[in-house]
Write a structure and sequence with these properties.
By secondary structure, the protein is mainly α. The chain has one domain. It contains three helices and no strands. The longest helix has 19 residues. The termini are far apart. The model has no long low-confidence stretch (mean pLDDT 86).
């Protein structure tokens, strides 16, 4: 039973790692990484 849980955990970890490093998600993660640097006043003036 322990080995099944270990294998399931490894599969979940690998799935998350593949999802996080996939090319389709790059734009979303780049935007999220820059959120702390966005100026809220600048965002209001754009609208």
């Amino acid at each position: 039973m322990r080995s099944l849980i270990t294998v399931a955990g490894l599969i979940c970890f690998l799935a998350i790692a593949i999802w996080a490093y996939s090319g389709r998600r790059r734009k979303d993660f780049d935007e999220a990484a820059n959120l702390p640097f966005n100026d809220p006043e600048e965002e209001q003036s754009r609208k």
